[in-house]
Amino acid sequence: xxxxxxxxxxxxxxxxxxxxxxxxxxxxxxxxxxxxxxxxxxxxxxxxxxxxxxxxxxxxxxxxxxxxxxxxxxxxxxxxxxxxxxxxxxxxxxxxxxxxxxxxxxxxxxxx
Amino acid sequence: xxxxxxxxxxxxxxxxxxxxxxxxxxxxxxxxxxxxxxxxxxxxxxxxxxxxxxxxxxxxxxxxxxxxxxxxxxxxxxxxxxxxxxxxxxxxxxxxxxxxxxxxxxxxxxxxxxx
Lengths: 112, 115
What we know:
The structure holds two protein chains of two kinds.
Chain A: E1 4-7, E2 10-14, E3 19-25, E4 30-38, E5 45-51, E6 56-59, E7 62-67, E8 72-77, E9 86-94, E10 101-102, E11 106-111
Parallel strand pairs in A: 2-11
Antiparallel strand pairs in A: 1-3, 3-8, 4-5, 4-9, 6-7, 7-8, 9-10, 9-11
Chain B: E1 4-7, E2 10-13, E3 19-25, E4 32-38, E5 44-51, E6 57-58, E7 67-73, E8 76-81, E9 90-97, E10 105-106, E11 110-114
Parallel strand pairs in B: 2-11
Antiparallel strand pairs in B: 1-3, 3-8, 4-5, 4-9, 5-6, 7-8, 9-10, 9-11
């Protein structure tokens, strides 16, 4: 089955800095890669996703890059704000089943 | 759009009782619903996948007689924790998806505490 590794487990940055979270996956058949943000005690919310036919996708301060050859993808947050503080999960899923495998999560702390 | 609700949001029960958690898609038809368990500061652990009108598919290590899942309609799935014990205490989250679409929409979660 799919195995998703996520790093770092904790990331602490100053407000205004950039934050990068990296994930690797094992199944070359995976073709859909969503990122979720989960605030304490709340539901995970989709913030951006990318499909395997695209190398990069951007939405305002958030971007995701995908390297299919190396089987890794990354989340980039620019100009971080305190409200970006949360746990971020990456996931990978294969097109047929769309059942995602989640990474272990990254706790992002943005200091004002 | 794409709102998923979960009820109850939290429940405290005595050991040995059964607890039912409901997951509803409010504004779309969910052909597939997922049930996850999440321990503090840990990732989402998929428990089972349920498709409307068919039996749920359980992940390895999840007892299907312990965690009963029913997906009787396109907008409702239920998880029943039978004979709950303190080790079943956790945060249970459902998600819903439309057939053929990748995106999952998560419910707000149910915090279960078994005394």
